[in-house]
Amino acid sequence: MSLTADVQAMLPDLDGYAYFQTSGFSPKLNPVVDEVVHWLKFQSRGPALPFVNRRIEELKRDIRGKVARTVNATPEEIVMTENTTIGINIVANGIDWKPGDNVLLTNHEHPGNRLTWYNLTGRYDVELRFVPMYNDLGRTLEEMDRLIDGRTRLVSVSHVSRRTGLRLPGREVCDLAHGKDTPVLFDGAQSFGAIPIDVRALDCDFYSFCGHKYTMAPQGTGGLFIRRDRIDWLKPSWIGSHSQKSFDQDGHMDLHDEARRFEFATRSVPDQAGFGKSLDIWEGLGWEAIFAGIAAYTDRMKAALLEIPELVLETPSSYDDSSGIVTFHVPGLEAGPLSESLQQHEKVLVSPLEFAAESTRVSTHVFNSDEDLERLTRGIRRVLNE
Ligand SMILES: Cc1ncc(COP(=O)(O)O)c(C=O)c1O
Q1: Which domains does the chain have, with CATH numbers?
Q2: Is the shortest distance between the CB of 82 and ligand 1 below 6 Å?
Q3: pLDDT digit string (tens) for 304-357?
Q4: Which residue has the CA at smallest separation from atom 14 of ligand 1?
Q5: How far is the C-alpha of 140 from the C-alpha of 318, rounded, in Å?
């Protein structure tokens, strides 16, 4: 069987929809859902039963290891989170801000890597700087270089843009920022599971990601990589039971040395088990094959869309500068009504972008078929001829 057929065989019933919304939320594979149910039932026998407790602790260790391996980190550098935004908040609220400090974002950031920082401006008198994302990456890097100064405490940017799928040259961003003593946080919501991530090769300080998009893990799963030497640098703003090695009754505590000090209290283990299962599935199918499959499909989609007269691709044409997101517009055609019409007539799910009335985002994955793509282009042509 082909990779696409292998993955399709694990999909739930999509009710006939061509699902191009993985960048928002992916459907979940049947074995992942079964794993969640299995662990929910097992844990529900009684989390305090010794054999349940022991097995759950082993499972949590296993999953942390899998997540670490996926981004080439060590388990000690991974915080298990519930989404990308929590990881960003751990960093944002963990910096010892001084009035007049600034943070560098791009103009493509999601509210998760935006509101977190907006929130700091009033509290600590922190300035926000926005670098424009040009498809000409040399120009984007030049702008970054111009905007980072001695008061820039962090560069916090999406590795892959949620708007156009533009892929930043991660290592170059880190080299540039580190050359000015500025650490780098990548928002990896759109890159994790879609393109290879190697935090060592990137040399980033922080990398935050979620399970629920390209790895097709349950909603409410994610992780934050904190490079070993940055763990103590961050001040924990939220901690609690499980963050500590020890504490006494007089106000003293000794936190874990590892990044897991930022995890606390009771978490959903079944969801994490589903996350671990989804990573097993992708690893079993072969990450290289997955990345190559998304790339090949995305290239086919770009070529098919470009055959439509007047359609403008906003995503870079080179896959090396992009990812499994294709954003386009047709001048004069509103994206909201287009997406509604595609949904109604062709059962195609795409998403109109906010703050850009004509831009439509299509996200691809290896489960999308050529027939899905044919329906998308047929639908756009139909709307244009109406
Ligand atoms: C680039 C980016 N960052 C952050 C988020 C928010 O993700 P989460 O819900 O995992 O916090 C998204 C979600 O679409 C995103 O695209």
Answers
A1: 3-28+286-385 (3.90.1150.10), 32-283 (3.40.640.10)
A2: no
A3: 999 999 999 999 999 999 999 999 999 999 999 999 999 999 999 999 998 999
A4: 24
A5: 16
